[in-house]
Amino acid sequence: MVFRDLTKQRHQKKINRNLKGLLSKCYKYGKLAGVELALYIQYPEKDEFVFFESEGYSQVAEKKDSVKAKMYKPSDVEEMLGTLHEKKVRKQVRERATPIRKRTSKFSRDFALELSGKIAQLGQFPKLPDLRVSGSGI
Q: What is the CATH architecture of 10-93?
């Protein structure tokens, strides 16, 4: 029973947080010149109805029935968001604007690996000759 109450509380917190985010975006968008905005949310379980209308917004039914009215269904929004996500992913995968420079030395990577393999096979570097010069030979 306690677990069920916690999940309801979490769910209610999510709803309140998302509602605050929606209302703040609606408020900012409604302040733009030439924009009238309305947001309607119904909570059937709680029998609540929340709405926001920007200043000067009226004649909702007439505007919804207008020929130029555009209604977005959930599938339309999902498709739109999916397209935006694909564009973002494609943009991230795109090649670098400045390509990585190639090696400029005359030795290739394969040559360096082969040489290091030979050194490892020898086990140690070869002995260098003794270059001490005695003073009596001159």
A: 3-Layer(aba) Sandwich (3.40)
